[in-house]
Amino acid sequence: MATISSPGVGTNGLDVKSIITQLVALEKKPLDTLKLQAATVSTKISAFGQIKSLVSAFSDAAGKLASLTGWNGVSTTSSDSKFVSATAIGGTLPTTFSVEVQGLAKAQATASAALLPVGGALGAGTLRLELGKWSVAPASFTPSSGQPVDIAITATDKLSDVASKINGANAGVTASILSDASGERLLLRSKSTGEEFGFRLSVMEGGDTDITSPGNTDASGLSRLVAGSTMTQVAANAKATVNGIAVTSATNTFASTISGVTFKAEQVTTAAVDITVSKDDSAIKANIDAFVKAYNDINQLLQEATKFDPKTNSAGLFQGDSTTVALQNSLRNAIQSVTSSGGPFQRLVDLGITQQRGGDLAVDSAKLNKALTETPEDVKNFFRSTGGGAADGVAVKIKALATNLLSNDGFFKSKDDSLQLSLKRNSQDQARVNEKVDAFEKRITRRYNALDTQLSSLNGLNAYISQQVSAWNKSTGG
Prior knowledge:
Helix content: 40-55%
Structural class: alpha+beta
Number of strands: 20
Strand content: 15-25%
Strand order of the largest sheet: 1-16-3-12-13
Shape: flat
Order of helices and strands: HHEEEEEEEHEEEEEEEEEHEEHEEHHHH
Number of domains: 3
Distance between the termini: 6 Å
Number of helices: 9
């Protein structure tokens, strides 16, 4: 008996979706390489950001050694900082002086008479606040040169509204409310301490602008805020003596009494407090140590990034990158540079700062301390001289190099621009591959769908022919 069949062909045997998926995956293969390249570039951008940060820190460390203030460090001590604390700026001449504090600076404070009913309206009028100085004998107020601040109060304003308006008037006074069994009181306080920052509150009612008239000082209406008010604290300057000489300050901080020194009255003293300012060589040593550490941080990162390990056959991120190697060499050359301005010190090694295997710097503290103690000016000149060219100090040269590297048209900007451009081009390449893959997928989908349709038609024809052959066989007795 004759038969015709096509197993695995047609809609019952052809997995069109699987075939298309596999073909598309092959077309996408270039994307794997591009994505790997993009990841590498992104990692390089991040790594150069880290290197840039370390170079910036190195620049700052060199800047301290290149500046005069970096060599004029001083130490300030107080024999009892609970009573008097002190600081001094770099370059302040060594000195010792004694301080006694007789009084701390105070802000003026007042309280109105108790007002009833609580929450009731006070009456319309104008409040006037003036800053100035109170005199005791005779009692008088001298306004400062600033303009008084007038605050309009409406007939429905309560004490809380008055306090809010005072606080919003920027009059140099703060307001709050105290409630007790007698009623509520308006509390006022100067924002600043010192006798020149006292204040006077006046009331003007019914169009009467004379603040001393009976209608503006009686115990009715808005005038109740001034009638019977008490001064709970008098504005006062801080008072002290320095080596027996009386001095005052509007605040508890005395910033211009001793040149270069600021001392603060913390409490009234019970005995004289000694303030001592001395040269601080430890700060210079700390700056040099910070300089060495900053360089080592860069060197270690660059060493790791540019090395090749033959044992593992692995390379650092920037192994073979000529620009990174050039950066590494520039920094090493700067560290190894010679200066003619440091007297007996021409290289870092002369100060006990040596370069180790691998490029890191190490400090011989004994040798460095000896140089700082015996010839501090020569050490300073070695780092910060500005004679030009070979006469420039090492720190000056390194600061200039780092500034150039970090500038808007310097090494790091150029390197970042280059890497960002590579990343942009990679993204464009990926987009083109995706477009190509999309077009390919659409094209082969149409083709395989057409093939599937044709195979379905052929399978139908095959079934018909098979049926006819079977019928013919039966009719012939086959």
